[in-house]
Structures are given as structure tokens and as C-alpha cells.
Amino acid sequence: MSSLEEELTCSVCRDVFSQALPLPCGHSFCPACVRDSWGHREAGVRGRFTCEQCQEEHGVVACDCCPRVEDEGQEGSAAAVKTCLRCEVSLCAMHLQPHLERAAFKTHLLVEPLGDLSHRRCPAHQEMYRYYCADERLYVCSDCLLDGGHAQHRVKGLKMVEEDLKVILQSLLQKAGEKLNEGERILQENQITDRTMTDLSLADDIQVERMGAVLQHQVESLVKDLRESARRERQKAIEHLQNNCSRLREDLSQTQDIHYYLASLLEETDPFLLIWAFQSDDSRLLADLNGPLFTPEPFSLDMKFIVKDIESKYREFITEMLRCLTKLKRDLMTSPLTLDTNSSHPLLSICDGLQSVMRVKHRLPCADHPDRFDHWAQVLTTQAFSSGTHYWELEAEGFWDIALSYRSIGRKGKEGTAFGNNKVSWSLTQQHDRKLAAWHNCKKTRISKRMSGNRVGVALDYGAGTITFSEVGSSSTLSHLHTFTASFSQPVCLGFGLYKAELHSRVTIARM
């Protein structure tokens, strides 16, 4: 057991592993250390692999075919560049030429120069290993085969095993390269997404600050209006009281004049003047004295008008605040979109920085692409969404389809590739007569409402599985048109279909 455990213990990391991978020298490494030993080399730089257990430093191996020179001052044998395991000799570049040129040596196995061939010999027969047993995963020599111990096993020559493995390795290398390219693409997309999210975060902060400023202005305006309303009502009350006081002062002043006039007549000593003065003004004097003084009615400030004005102003404030919140919500949910030129049908012209698409009368020159629609005049967006809540507004004119679709939608041919005529897309269509219809899986749902404008709002809640189409009014109010409910199993992207070039059919991604 101790010997078995030692055999299954990695010479490098000292971990016990399940299956030994022996080197010709007899030492074994776990798969992780084998990969680590080969994987840390620089790309394109070949180096000699040395067993980590033996730590054998080969140094310069002399050519076995060059004459050896023992005299001092003369150069020795040339350095070997290869070792032939069939001939069991190490060869310099000159003596290697026959092995490279002559057919007789074609089956000879050449390896990097080896100073000690003992690790490549069978310890039982002292013959060079020339075969490999795949069943027992052992190197074997010719005598091992003659002994019959591997009679029913899969045994191949080392050269053939090398060629077979290199075919497999080439395939794996290609697969690894494809995986690297895919990883680089995903990393690049994520880096772009990261930069986009950073930009969106800054834009969101600006939007929130802008909304805060708007709301602050609204609050200040509301407080100002309320103060002004209360001031006006108080001013009306003050003016009313001042008018009453003025009338009362006029009556008092008139009574004061009569009082002074009567007192003056009482002091008059000339009877002729007294009679004349009294009789000339007695009727008016009596009327003035008998008339009542102006008495103001009891007055209190009526708060009804103030409260009514406050309620009106407050409703306006709430309405404006809700409008701002709705706009902010749409802005925050709006995800950036660009059109995928590789998917665009040749009868569609994309412009405005991949933000607008228009139907044209004549086919445009487009390179063949597996993603391109070749029958219906349709195009998809580059971005796809597999989570979250999103909102977009589109300016749509003419005869159009606005759809949410999986990327797996068919692109070639007529059948099952139009938006809404399959299980993988949901569309809202406006026909040439401006009638609206919703389509999914070839099922048409007529919509009685007709749009008064050209702006369409599309809301996607991926988690809830809803797609909502609305008309966007002049004051950004939404008028519901249709809602789809689905269980999404793939990322979805927007798609546009445009028909009837004479109707100037066009869709533009609106900037919020």
C-alpha cells in the first residue's frame, strides 16, 4: 500500500491522484502539474521539458557520429540537434541530414538531444521503447510484444501515436482558439456594456439632478403662489375695511360740521341773522341729523377662496410633479439602441448613426450574411435584453411593424420569418390605411383605436413577461394600445418591418 501511495503521489505538489501519467523516466505527475508545467511557457518559444523529480540538466549533447578529438587546443565533436531512438544515437545537423532526406529513415523517431537513453529503455529487456499500449497506458518494447503480454491490447508505434495525438491536439487547439475568441468577444462586449453603464449612470445622475431642480422650482413656485393668493385675499379685506372707515369718517366729519354750525348759531346775538341762517338750512339740517350714521356690517376674512386657490395650485403642482416623475421613469428605463446592419434587408436604408431606418424602392448593395433577412423588409437592433424593465419611444410613419423578437427568428425565405407570424416575435402593425393590429404566432388581434400621431411607446418587463405598446401624446401622456403576455426563454431585441416605399415608411429611435 505504501508503494502504491508513493506511485500515485505527484512528485511536484505531493497530492495523491487517481491515475498515474508516467514519464519515460518512471516519475508521474498529476494532470494539474502537467498542464502547469507546459502552460507557463511563452507562446512560440520551444523549450525542453525536464522532469521535475529528476531535475536532469542535459547540457550539450555531443554528436555520436563525429570523431572525438582528445587533443588540447582542438575543437571536440559537434553538438547534437536530435537523438534517433531507433538508431540510439545523437546527431549533429550534418549527420542528421540522411534521416531527414532518405526514405529508409522515415519511420525513425527523432527527439530532442538526449545524453542518457536509459530512461527510454525497457528495464526488463533493455530494448528501446518503440510502442505504446493504450489499454495499460504503458510504453513497451519489441520483446514486450513478443512475450505476448499485450496480445489483445491496442498497441501502436510511438510515431503513429504521436501523429494521432497531434490530430486530436490540433482539433482541441482550434476549439481552444475559438473559445478564446468567443471569450475576447464577450469580454469586449462587457467592457462596452461597462462603459455604456458608466455613461448611463452619469446621464441618470444628471437626469435626477435636473428633476430635483425642476421639483425645487415647482415647490418654490407653489409656495410663492400660495403666499400671493393669501396676500391678495388679505389685501381685499384690508381695502374693504379701509373703505368702510373712509365712509364712516365722512359721516363723522359731516356731523362734526353740523355740530359746530349749531353751536355757532346758539352764540349768535342778532335775531335777524339767527332766523335767516336757521330757516335757510333747516330742512337739510334736520335730514342730515335724522339720517343714521354709516355702520359697517361685521366683517371676517373668508378663507374659502384662499383654500380653493390653494387646492387648485396644489393640484397643478402634483400634476407637474407626476409628469416629471413619469418622464424620469421613462428616461431611466430607456436603454440605448442601434440597428444591426448585418440583419437589414437590402430594401432598407439605415441612417442617423444607426438610429433610423427607411424603406427604399430599389435594393441596396449588401454583402451576403447569415443574419440578413432576405424576403421581408425587416431589421433587428444590435442590443438584446434578458432581464429588467425597459422602455423606448419610436417615431413611426407609413406602413410599419414594430416588434420584440428572439434572435433565433428565421432570416431566410418567406414562411415563418415575418414579425408576429411565428412563436418567437410579438408585433404591432400599422397598415396603409392606419388601421392597427397586434400579431403573434400568426394570430391577428384587431385594435379599434387609431393613432392620432406618429410616436409609439414600447415597454418591456422581461421578468413579468409583458410587452406593452402605447401611443405617446403631445404632452408625453401614454394611451394604451395593446399588451402581450409571454414567458420569455431567450433574450429579446426590437425589430422593425417597413412596407410600401411610396408611403415613406420609416422608423426612428427617438431620443428621450
UniProtKB/TrEMBL annotation:
Residues 117-158 form the B box-type domain. SUPFAM superfamilies: B-box zinc-binding domain, Concanavalin A-like lectins/glucanases, RING/U-box. Residues 10-55 form the RING-type domain. GO terms for biological process: innate immune response. Keywords: Coiled coil, Immunity, Innate immunity, Metal-binding, Zinc, Zinc-finger. PANTHER family: B-BOX DOMAIN CONTAINING (PTHR25465), E3 UBIQUITIN_ISG15 LIGASE TRIM25 ISOFORM X1 (PTHR25465:SF73). InterPro entries: B30.2/SPRY, B30.2/SPRY_sf, Butyrophylin_SPRY, ConA-like_dom_sf, E3_ubiq-ligase_TRIM/RNF, PRY, SPRY_dom, Znf-RING_euk. GO terms for molecular function: zinc ion binding. It comes from Umbra pygmaea. Residues 231-258 form a coiled coil. SMART domains: PRY (SM00589), RING (SM00184), SPRY (SM00449). This is Uncharacterized protein. Residues 317-512 form the B30.2/SPRY domain.
